[in-house]
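Appendix B. Extra example for self-study. Work through it before the problem class; the solution is given directly after the inputs so you can check yourself.
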Amino acid sequence: MIRQLVMAMGLFLTATAIADAASVRAVVDRNQATVGESIALQVTITGGKGEADFSGLADFKTISRGSSSSFQMINGRTSRQLIHNYVLIPLNAGNLTIPAIPVTIDGKVHYTTPISVTVSKEPPADSGKRDVYVTADVSEPSPWIGQQLTYTFRLFNAVQVADAKFQAPDFKGFNAEELEKRKSYRTVINGREFVVTEVIFILVSVKTGVLEIEPAVLQVGLLQRSRRPKPFSGMDSFFGRTEMTTRILQTDSETVNVRALPLIQPGTSFSGLVGRFEISATLNKMAIKVGDSTTLAVTIAGSGNIMDAPAPTIPAPSKFKTYADNPEEQVQLGPEGYSGSKIFRTALVPVQLGQYRIDPIVLAYFDVDAGQYRKISTSAFNVTVSPSDTAATDIDVFRATPTETPSLKKRVEFTGRDILPLKESLDAIAYQRSLSFLWFALFLAIPAVGFLIVRTVIQMTQKDDSPGRIMAERAKQALKTAASAGSSDADFLSALYRALVSAILGTQGIMGTSLTWSEAKERLVDIGWDADDAASTARLLEAIESFNYSGGKLNEEKRADLMDRTRKAVRRLIR
Amino acid sequence: MKRLLLTTGSLLLLLTLAATAPASQTARTFMDGAEAYRNGDWPAAIVAFESLADGGVNNGKLYYNIGNAYLKNDDLGRALLWYERALKRIPDDPDLRFNYDYALTLTKDEQGEKESPLLRILFFWKYQLSHSTVRWIAILLNAALWTVLSVLVIRKKRLLRPTVILLVAGTVIFSGTAAFNYVEATQFRHAVILPEQAAVRSGFTDTATQLFVLHAGTKVRVERESETHLLIRYTEDKMGWVKKADAGMI
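Solution. Structure tokens for the complete assembly:
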């Protein structure tokens, strides 16, 4: 009995747990639609909170429409429902599938059931069967660079629309300006009346080549009266209220082939204007006196880049002074693009009487209709200049000081493009030998080698002027002096003494002229002589010194002996 | 004796004429090309000037003229190819720079490899002077440096002095630039796209995937070459094979 009771309790608890487990469900308001038409999707989460992941919906654009929650009580038990609303817009035609949408609830992933949707293509735009559609076109598919063209976006709607969001193309390769005034009118297509709204952009191409204008995109809400009950419409459908469905509409992309301007004929001064232009001129006085002024007004008018029109060159006679005024510009942006006029006024002041002719003013522009450069000109003027009321010398033409004159300088632009001429001198056919890397390296190495040679030669030939060398030379010279015939005893002894002292000091690189007996002996021992030889040579030095100071007469034998011993000692020392 | 002199004189005259004949022919061809150019006969001018270049005349001014003739003949690709070749020889020529800049405005593709403006400022001498000029400046500075050092050694003066340091710096800079120019000429090769448009593919065949399209006058770097194709790099992320006939090596 107890066992049966426990089993019954277990079954009850299990059933309760199953009943309380979270679940998800997805439903759509319809499973047949056309491309761009919206489908309402509800994802219902029961028994928990979670967010749906729509990253797997590649064939649809997903827009969230908010969420709501509700509580239900059935048989005394409460349950909570969370409803997420979405709008799906199919991007392609065909049999599409809304895949199982993962919803994470309390760390556990739940999936909805996949839903099949049949999406058909839209009927042709001009069939009149669509409730709403968009088109785009350009006024000139093959413009010249700098030519302006219009890009017109049109929205056709046979039903009421609201909440429109327009995304214009990037217009890469163009300068684009949208006309502020949007045009709206009604038209009948295949017996059905549409409201047409136009958005116009004026485009000016800035680069040549085939340029693609990307599709323009419009997201719009369609207000339609409900024709049949829909699962999410609630009581609205009962009362026949309108409902709004969201549509995303996009135009086709447009291809524009921008052509480069042809090469201008040499000698033509191109103004840089591209479009359709006219030029005219007026002179307010044909007969004036010397010193008076007459104003020449040159007007350039037309459509195109009129704002870039440069000041014309005034062919005033040399006896006229000219004073240019700031140009007056009136440019409008209309459905045909930029158009207007630019007036250049120049005051002409004659300084000498006579009959003068002001030649026509010529303007060269690129005619986009004819596809070629065109020269237009004003008429010529004949001006009669009579004498001034005052003497000619009294005429003063006053000009404002530079600081007061408004600057008329402007950036100089090309008025024509061409290349510079040939190089016709015959040095163009001179063979320019290219230095190989080997020769280059050789040329770099030669001076370095030369330097090394110079340095070596100098080292080899340089006179040794070290103290040791000088003292050795001095010793040799003193020996020669001593050996010369006819020298007195004093000179002979002085020379021997000098020779021996120089030789001893020279071995140690020391300059000097005298040494004592003991110093001589010490130095000789220091340089490696044995003590006897050192003492013998020191005694020789002492003997020479004593003979010298005693003043005694030297016989030949003694003289020869001293000479011989000194020579031997010196030779040994300077060897 | 008189006969001997006459014979010798005639022989000398013949030898002189024989020696000057090729030079006169070259000059005549050049003048014919210039005349054809003046008359607007661009194809004839191209034939004349190119025959000189094919004959071994290696001269930046001649290459400039060929570029001009091609540009007038509406062959932008070959015009820029010859201007590029001329720029290697006479980069500081103002006429060449003007025409080259103008021709660049007619190209359809953006410049692929863009050199840093900072590099052009820092190493201005490399971009302003021709390879030949850089080499000779290096040689002259080097010669001056060793001459000054030799004089200082002879006069037993101290070697490390401002003049010597300046000369060492100049020699190192220009010798280094010249050496880099040699390496660059052999290792980094460039080409110019010749036809109006050329397909760059993933392989050698016409059925290989077309990766992108380049237009006349676009300068590319040549990475490798096969018998019929060049592997070119337009930008860091765009490279592929193009037919050799569609690209002229600079």
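Self-check: The helical segments of chain A are 2-20, 235-239, 437-461, 467-483, 489-507, 517-526, 531-550, 556-574. If your reasoning did not lead you there, revisit section 3.
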